[in-house]
Design goal:
Number of helices: 18
GO molecular function: L-amino acid transmembrane transporter activity
Shape: globular
Main location: membrane
Structural class: mainly alpha
InterPro entries: AA/rel_permease1 (IPR002293), AminoAcid_Transporter (IPR050598)
Strand content: under 5%
Helix content: over 70%
CATH topology: Amino acid/polyamine transporter I
Radius of gyration: 22 Å
Number of strands: 0
Number of domains: 1
Membrane topology: Multi-pass membrane protein
CATH superfamily: Amino acid/polyamine transporter I
Order of helices and strands: HHHHHHHHHHHHHHHHHH
Subcellular location: Membrane
Largest sheet: none
CATH class: Mainly Alpha
Distance between the termini: 24 Å
Length: 446
């Protein structure tokens, strides 16, 4: 097994592309309608997108400080570990590997296949599953062979995936109907509608933290990570808000709140695109999801790599390819697991219930800054303004999302959380006794 380490080869544009590319996914095609339905009026719907983005700002500021204090691969695992919550750090990675990261890869691959099948019905059933696996393997080949080339590919695919949205925004402003903004609901509470609308945007703003998983591979992380995190949230906030304005301006609001494919339905109101609306959105969706898939395959294996280096995961996951300088074994195992899950779509849906414990650990992740600030080695290049207030706001935003997830599937979420603890803690104590005690002490001292 190679004892090599990952090196710093990525710059600002790769960081920004990973952050933006991970965040903007397939959900935006339907979330515009969901937010409008929850908000109840055009004005509140637009305001919900703005507030939803503002809520994410304290979270990225906390992550920016933590990532520049400890510019290592592993993100939340590293911060929880540094805070002295080592068992919780392990559960963070344990649940992420088995129930979140590889399943997300398989789900995105199948989503791409579903859009491809709308153009080519041949890719249905087993043929579609095989295509999904081929897509995963093709993207994996890029990120397996070179982190630098993988970063370049991510920059290109992220730029390409934004272009269709910019087309809709520009044409939307040209052809929108101002009368659509005067819609008034028959009944409803403005306060409740605003809360509901903001809540519906929350998932659309998650993903910027992806670059923290690769903090150990960015050049000059003290400057690159904060700039990329904060810039990404403002880019995404602006894009989402403008897109929401255009969608509302293009189609009657009473139709928007009934739409399950808001962007596609809105495009039908644009002269010149109305006849090819479904094809336009289908191609856009393929590119958008492909960018998110690439980002996930790139950053996700870094978590298990970091855990294995600490003696808290299978030791082979710490292997670095001697030629390509990538976490080769971790990448391969994750995509093999994801390819296996492609054949079990229902299983990936079931694994989604583990999201609740991940969100609860994320809350602790933000809270870790209180403990880390007391450490002698805590010397972040970036320090967030009004750090106590900012951290409280970050925790509150994460708690809101966790509560929303709990109300969606309370029993399933609690059972999943118990499964993670019941399976994870025995493994943690085994690995801690066998490999981790020395690594853990070195981590505390480091």
């Amino acid at each position: 097994m190679s004892n090599g380490a990952l090196t710093r080869k990525l710059g600002f544009w790769a960081a920004l592309a990973i952050a933006v590319g991970t965040t903007i996914g397939s959900g935006i095609f339907v979330s515009t309608g969901e937010v409008a339905k929850a908000a109840g009026t055009p004005t509140i719907s637009i305001l919900a997108w703005v507030i939803g983005g503002l809520i994410a700002i304290p979270q990225v500021m906390v992550l920016a400080e933590l990532s520049t204090a400890y510019p290592q691969n592993g993100s939340g695992y590293v911060y929880l570990n540094k805070a002295g919550w080592r068992p919780l750090a392990f559960l963070y990675g344990w649940s992420t590997f088995w129930a979140l990261d590889p399943p997300s890869i398989s789900i995105m691959a199948l989503a791409i296949v579903s859009y491809v099948a709308s153009f080519f019905p041949f890719f249905d059933g087993m043929n579609g599953k095989l295509l999904g696996i081929a897509i995963i393997l093709a993207i994996t080949a890029i990120h397996y062979r070179s982190v630098k080339e993988g970063g370049l590919f991510q920059v290109i695919i992220t730029a390409v995936k934004i272009i269709p949205f910019l087309i809709v925004i520009v044409l939307g402003f040209i052809y929108m109907n101002p009368g659509n903004f005067s819609y008034t609901p028959a009944s409803g509470s403005t306060e409740t509608s605003l809360i509901g609308g903001v809540s519906a945007t929350t998932w659309a703003y998650t993903g910027m933290a992806a670059i923290c998983f690769m903090a150990g591979e960015f050049k000059n992380p003290g400057k690159v990570l904060p700039r990329a995190l904060i810039t990404s949230i403002f880019i995404i906030l602006t894009l989402y808000t403008l897109l929401a304005v255009c969608v509302i301006g293009l189609m009657p609001f009473e139709q928007l709140i009934q739409s399950n494919a808001a962007v596609s339905d809105a495009v039908k109101y644009i002269p010149g695109l109305s006849d090819i609306a479904s094809s336009f959105v289908g191609v856009t969706a393929i590119v958008v999801i492909l960018g998110s898939l690439s980002s996930c395959i790139m950053f996700q294996p870094r978590l298990e790599y970091a855990m294995a280096k600490d003696g808290l995961f299978f030791q082979r996951f710490a292997k670095v390819h001697p030629k390509y300088e990538t976490p080769s074994f971790s990448i391969l195992v994750q995509v093999i697991y994801a390819c296996f899950l492609v054949f079990f779509g229902n299983l990936t849906a079931l694994l989604g219930y583990f999201t609740l414990i991940q969100l609860l650990i994320n809350i602790m992740d933000f809270a870790a800054v209180y403990k880390c600030r007391k450490r002698d080695d805590y010397k972040p290049v970036y320090r967030m303004p009004l750090w106590r207030i900012t951290t409280i706001l970050a925790i509150a935003g994460a708690a809101w999302l966790a509560w929303g997830t709990f109300t969606w599937a309370p029993i399933q979420g609690m059972v999943a959380a118990l499964i993670v603890v019941a399976t994870g803690l025995p493994v943690y104590y085994y690995w801690e006794r066998k490999y981790g005690s020395k690594a853990g002490k070195e981590n505390i001292v480091a």
